[in-house]
Design a protein that fits this description.
The structure holds 3 protein chains of 3 kinds.
Chain A: H1 12-17, E1 32-38, E2 44-50, H2 52-56, E3 60-64, E4 74-75, E5 82-83, E6 89-90, E7 96-102, H3 105-114, E8 116-121, H4 128-131, E9 144-152, H5 155-160, E10 164-171, E11 184-189, E12 195-199, H6 205-215, E13 222-226, H7 242-252, E14 256-259, H8 262-268, E15 275-283, E16 289-301, H9 307-317, E17 326-335, H10 349-367, H11 371-378, H12 398-410, E18 419-429, E19 439-445, E20 451-455, H13 464-476, E21 483-487, H14 504-526, H15 534-539, E22 549-553, E23 573-584, E24 591-601, H16 608-628, E25 652-658, H17 680-692, H18 703-716
Parallel strand pairs in A: 1-14, 12-13, 16-17, 20-21, 24-25
Antiparallel strand pairs in A: 1-7, 2-6, 2-8, 3-7, 4-5, 9-17, 10-15, 11-12, 11-14, 15-16, 18-23, 19-20, 19-22, 23-24
Chain B: E1 6-9, H1 13-22, E2 26-29, H2 35-40, E3 47-50, E4 60-63, E5 66-69, H3 75-80, H4 82-87, H5 89-95, H6 101-106, H7 109-115, H8 123-128, E6 132-136, E7 141-145, H9 146-149, E8 150-152, E9 155-156, E10 163-169, E11 176-182, E12 193-202, E13 205-214, E14 221-222, H10 224-230, H11 237-255, H12 261-277
Parallel strand pairs in B: 1-3, 2-3
Antiparallel strand pairs in B: 4-5, 5-10, 6-7, 6-10, 8-9, 11-12, 12-13, 13-14
Helix pairs in contact in B: 10-11, 11-12
Chain C: E1 2-8, E2 11-17, H1 23-30, E3 49-52, E4 55-58, E5 71-73, H2 86-93, H3 103-116, H4 122-128, H5 140-158
Parallel strand pairs in C: 1-5
Antiparallel strand pairs in C: 1-2, 3-4, 3-5
The chains are: A alpha+beta, B alpha+beta, C alpha+beta.
């Protein structure tokens, strides 16, 4: 039995030896170097581009613009609205305009500095609240990217029947993914003249399709390979270097390498959506929630990226993991000329969690109810109706996660004047919201008697390669040694969908189970389970060949109703509770996170160590989101002032795994990647309130904001 | 890639001074933790003179009641050096808080001074220890008190042909001494505020008090007026309040009211209360 | 160009470097040691960590010329005997490796700690890796691995 065991991660050895080939480490003989010339203006027409001085530099091979694109210039994960290379207009500072290709990286960068661009500035739309007023349209369709409405019951009536109503505004800002490995890749033509791109990425088949569109060549003539990827967190879902590399290779016919500097990654890459959330909650004196009304305004930057997805997820998850009979949510994403907001771990839900968890604590305080009790009272459970009126038929372990932290919660004792305890709960739909997001894989048998699993899943460090192997081993009843993983290459795998939405264990895991079922049947008939070796099964195969065994899975969901968002947007949900203890130094405003108890209903932990690893990492990212991370355009230029938590910022963490088995998941598993982060910042904010009496409604709650709030609080007393 | 420059490694102080005098557009490099960042951002020098290995700059001696610190001594070394821990505790603590372990292994105290950041952690402790720099050039040598050597944020009066030969401080024994600083995360962050203090009390009076504050004014400053007030004063709430009021006034006199003061003044007040109350 | 001579992972090495070259560049580009990473270029992430005379330094902020006459170690040194070092084994066992980009630097900071302090407590361990950022793991399993490795190394040194 491999499920539930801490099987050594399959990629760990290469990583501790330092031999793992990250995109930054890739090389080919005769390779050229590319770099991008980027806009210095937030919104402008490009009047003139002078590359003469750049071209004249010795070692410069070519300088490419949108005019050199044989196919489509526009790309995008949801809507094709973002140019690979700006065509006469730029919409954010850092937007790509040209690709310089040269013999050395230094030459490419120097040439890039010699390019002269004349801009004619357009209105810089920097306020999402005013964006809709501007006569200047960032895109032809207007400055509203998306508006999602969620209507359940009658919120107005719900508030009428409330005993208490609490209304507050919350806000969060841009956050950078800050993976340790910046974007990078290597492109080349193979001996058949196909374009090959190896990169640091969270998906391969999607990028293959974009490159195919870019170059107007069939997808079969493109191959995308995932290099060992040093972190993603949603930032490597969009096309990053892949398009530029493909274009450069196409024109030069030589291998081309490119990597982003950290400054470039911070400047040009997508960020977490800033969300402004006006949240109104109604409840009765017994603690039951009666109504929730939420207005969300998001700054999506100038391009869609994953803006529509965040818009919808934020709306669907706005109530938090609670049964609320009356819900009204308006979630709007506006275009601006600010940084592009895109996918980042949680897709809007960490921001909403800040709101729904603070609201609940405030209600609890008003009616004199313990924060744990009010959560238990309203918790979604099996048979509950979600905000989209989906009935939770199966795995819904929120109560179990609350019970897991309960003993620690009941025993909590304040250690000093700034000591506080807070709870944060969450639920998160696994997989893409209300749309088809299938995963496919296939299994083969080799002449040597090995099973090969062909997986298009991009492991970005979270451990999907290992988890899928464990799932396959158990599905086949086989020893691990007998299975080889063939992965990360569009040539040898099928589309498993992106590594996002915490979906790979659940969806690709089920695809693997699906394939395994077929292979198992074949092996049974061939006598494997009676002792016949695989090698012999292969050589004795009828017609001289063993078939391939396909696996597919697409979680059953329904598209949300366009007016009310009602429906079944996910096939399963993860649930979690984080209990956090903090200690605020009232002199300095420093908030130390002392201890976290994090309980997660993951359905089934395929690999306990890796699940815990995700939880610990999520806690760290939550501490960053709550207390120190703030991307300030124009100011946050590198890690010298964009602060990530260090080892010294981490508390003790107890990760507790709850397994409310999901029957539609592989051996009961759901997902944990994003859930690990989602409730953490919310729990810290609640703990700060417990410790100081202050509601911090804007993130980050850094030392200065907290101290100023403490001072104001003193004055008010 | 860094801008092009020629580098030389000086084996002795004389070699370094000779090069400083004769080479075009020279710049000293010790640990490199500040200079490398500047050069990566485009700052250009024709010649870089590496002084990190010069034995005379790496030694510490005690003579005539003064401790002489070699400017090439790293923060890591100084934070652990027994005589510094014993007689200049605030300096040892401050050096132990600079950057990260790697930065402390590389960065030197001379480099920290030469960079003259308003937030440099080593400067307030050096100020309360009456630090005097010996500035040497090929043909001359002069002594400059530290507070005179730093003239503006990131600007010193050290001439381009001069090298810090040594940093002399007075040891303080029998003081309650320390360094407090506040930053946006637990470590590896620029100090938003730093306070070096050394206080002596006897029979309910402050017999001597030294106080220097960093990151609040263009250059770290020693609160001399406050020190005068405290010396000999009774240790009570009235004295402490007055001392704090004076420290904040002195700061406002130097810098005016900066936006960051909304945060820094109350924090400083709280820290000074803790420091003076002991 | 100048010639620098130093001990690299236990072997005498000599290469030619430019005056304005970083040790990071020299290791990766001239010596092909790609285990040393670039994550930020300004000494703010730790992925470029190498040991200079057994002390962790940021190679992105170190001029290559400074390596002259020094002992330089990269993560390859840990397994130079042909087997995994207890730290590497512990990292694998404890789940301390996720994306792996910070791993070589972390291992070196940890190795340096164990050379200085055979019995580090939790705070010593936290501090030893406080100059190495990790975005994936939250550090906890890394710290567990280092503690476990310290136990094993102590046993070895008592043999």
């Amino acid at each position: 039995m491999f499920i539930g065991q801490d099987i050594t991660r399959v990629d760990a050895l290469d990583k501790v030896l330092g031999t793992a080939a990250f995109a930054h480490d890739l090389k080919k003989n005769n390779m050229l170097f590319a770099c991008v010339v980027r806009s210095s203006r937030p919104h402008a027409l490009i009047r003139k581009i002078d590359v003469s001085a750049a071209r004249a530099l010795e070692g410069v091979v070519t300088i490419l613009s949108h005019e050199d694109i044989p196919g489509e210039n526009l790309f995008g994960a949801i809507k094709k609205d973002q140019p690979f290379l700006a065509a006469g207009r730029v919409r954010y500072k850092g937007e790509a305009i040209l690709v310089v290709v040269a013999a050395t990286e230094e030459t490419a960068q120097r040439a890039s500095d010699l390019v002269r661009i004349e801009y004619e500035d357009l209105e810089n739309i920097s306020d999402p609240f005013l964006s809709i007023q501007s006569p200047v349209l960032i895109h032809d369709g207007g400055n509203l990217l998306s508006h999602r409405k969620l209507v359940k019951g009658d919120a107005a009536k719900g508030f009428e029947s409330s005993d208490v109503i609490v209304e507050n505004t919350y806000s969060t800002t841009w956050i950078d993914h800050a993976y340790m490995e910046t974007e990078a890749g290597l492109g080349y033509l193979d001996d058949r003249g196909r374009v090959v791109v190896a990169s640091s990425t969270q998906n391969i088949h999607y990028k293959m399709k974009e490159i195919s569109r870019l170059l107007a060549i069939p997808p079969e003539d493109v191959r995308v390979v995932q290099a060992t990827t040093g972190g993603g967190f949603g930032g490597k879902l969009d096309v990053t270097v892949e398009g530029y590399l493909a274009l450069a290779v196409w024109h030069t016919k030589r291998p081309v390498f490119m990597r982003y500097t950290r400054e470039e990654s911070l400047l040009a890459q997508t960020k977490r959506h800033p969300l402004y959330i006006v949240y109104k909650t109604g409840a009765r004196m017994d603690g039951s929630l009666t109504a929730v009304e939420v207005n969300i305004v998001g700054d999506t930057g100038p391009y869609n990226s994953y803006g529509e997805t965040v818009c919808l997820r934020a709306a669907v998850h706005a109530t938090g993991p609670y049964e609320v009979p009356n819900v009204l949510v308006n979630s709007r994403m506006f275009y601006t000329n600010n940084p592009v907001s895109g996918a980042m771990r949680g897709f809007g839900v960490p921001q909403l969690a800040l709101a729904h968890e603070s609201q609940l604590d405030e209600i609890a305080g008003l009616i004199g109810m313990d924060p744990l009790d009010i959560r238990m009272k309203n918790a979604l459970k099996r048979g509950s109706l979600t905000a989209t009126s989906q009935v939770l038929n199966y795995s819904a372990g929120l109560l179990e996660t609350l019970k897991a932290v309960e003993p620690f919660w009941r025993e909590r004792r304040k250690e000093g004047p700034g000591s506080g305890f807070g709870l944060g709960c969450m639920y998160y739909g696994i997989g893409n919201t209300g749309i088809s997001n299938p995963s496919s894989c296939y299994l083969t048998l080799t002449p040597e008697g090995r099973v090969e699993m062909h997986s298009g899943v991009c492991d970005i460090g979270q451990g999907s390669d290992t988890a899928l192997l464990q799932i396959l081993c158990d599905a086949l009843g086989m020893e691990e040694m007998g299975i080889d993983l063939v992965r990360g290459d569009t040539d040898t795998s099928w589309d498993a969908g992106s590594t996002s939405a915490s979906r790979q264990t659940y969806i690709s895991g089920m695809a693997v189970c699906n394939a395994a079922q077929k292979l198992k049947k074949y092996l049974k008939e061939a006598g494997y389970y009676d002792g016949k070796p695989l090698k012999d099964i292969y050589s004795d195969a009828p017609d001289g060949s063993v078939p391939i065994f396909e696996g597919h899975f697409d979680p059953p969901t329904t598209a949300p109703d366009p007016e009310t968002s009602q429906g079944s947007p996910y096939a399963t949900y993860a649930f979690a509770t984080h209990m956090t203890e903090i200690d605020v130094d009232e002199v300095t405003g420093v908030c130390k996170v002392v201890r976290v108890h994090a309980a997660h209903d993951v359905g089934r932990a395929i690999n306990v160590s890796n699940v815990k690893g995700q939880i610990y990492g999520g806690v760290a990212m939550g501490i960053g989101l709550a207390l120190m991370e703030e991307f300030i355009p124009g100011k946050s230029e590198s890690f010298d002032n964009y602060y990530l938590p260090t080892s010294m910022d981490m508390p003790e963490v107890e990760a507790m795994i709850v397994e409310d088995r999901e029957p539609t998941g592989p051996f009961g598993a759901k997902g944990v990647g994003e859930p690990a982060l989602i409730p953490q910042a919310a729990a810290i904010v609640n703990a700060i309130h417990d410790g100081t009496g202050i509601w911090m409604r804007q993130l980050p709650c850094d030392i200065e904001r907290l101290k100023l709030a403490l001072e104001k609080n003193k004055e008010n007393k | 890639m860094l801008p092009k420059f020629a580098s030389v490694i000086a084996r002795t102080k004389d070699e370094a001074l000779s090069w400083l005098s004769s080479l075009e557009n020279p710049k000293i490099i010790a640990g490199g933790t500040d200079l490398m960042v500047k050069m990566r951002a485009g700052k250009h020098y024709s010649h870089v003179i590496d002084v990190a290995g010069i034995p005379e700059l790496l030694t510490m001696t005690e003579k005539d009641g003064r401790i002489s610190i070699g400017p090439a001594m790293t923060h890591a070394r100084l934070s652990a050096e027994a005589s510094i821990v014993r007689s200049a505790r605030s300096l040892a603590l401050a050096c132990g808080l600079v950057g990260s372990p790697q930065i402390r292994n590389m960065g030197t105290i001379g480099g920290n001074l030469g960079n003259a950041s308003p937030a440099a952690d080593s400067i307030p402790p050096l100020l309360i220890h009456d630090a005097v720099l010996t500035l040497e050039s090929r043909d001359a040598s002069r002594k400059v008190p530290l507070e005179e050597a730093i003239v503006a944020p990131y600007v010193t009066s050290i001439d381009g042909k001069e090298l810090i030969g040594s940093i002399e401080i007075s040891p303080l024994r029998g003081y309650r001494e320390g360094y407090r600083r506040v930053a946006k995360r637990a470590t590896w962050a620029i100090s938003r505020l730093g306070v070096a203090f050394a206080i002596r009390e006897e029979d309910g009076r402050f017999t001597d008090a030294r106080l220097a504050i960093g990151s609040c004014t263009p250059m770290p400053f020693r609160a001399k007026k406050v020190e005068v007030l405290l010396k000999g004063a009774p240790k009570n709430e009235a004295t402490i309040s007055e001392a704090i009021r004076m420290a904040l006034e002195e700061m406002k006199l130097i810098s005016g009211i900066r936006p960051s003061y909304a945060y820094k003044l109350p924090v400083l007040q709280g820290i000074l209360e803790e420091v003076l109350r002991g | 160009m100048k010639t620098i001579r130093f001990v690299l992972n236990g072997k005498e090495t000599s290469i030619e470097v430019e005056d304005n070259e970083t040790l990071l560049y020299a290791l990766r580009e001239r010596l092909g040691i790609t285990s040393v990473k670039e994550g930020c270029g300004i000494g703010e992430c730790g992925t470029c960590t190498v040991l200079v005379d057994d002390e962790p330094h940021y190679s992105c902020l170190t001029l290559a010329s400074k390596a002259n006459g020094r002992d330089i170690k990269t993560v390859e040194y840990l397994s130079s005997s042909g087997v995994l070092h207890p730290l590497q084994e512990a990292f694998i066992r404890s789940g301390a490796v996720q994306c792996g980009y910070c791993t070589p630097g972390m291992l070196l900071s940890a190795y340096s700690l164990l050379l200085r302090n055979a019995d580090p407590d939790a705070h010593d361990i936290k501090e030893a890796i406080s100059g190495n950022l990790c975005r994936c793991t939250g550090y906890i399993q890394i710290e567990e691995a280092i503690k476990n490795a310290a136990e094993i190394c102590k046993c070895h040194s008592q043999d």
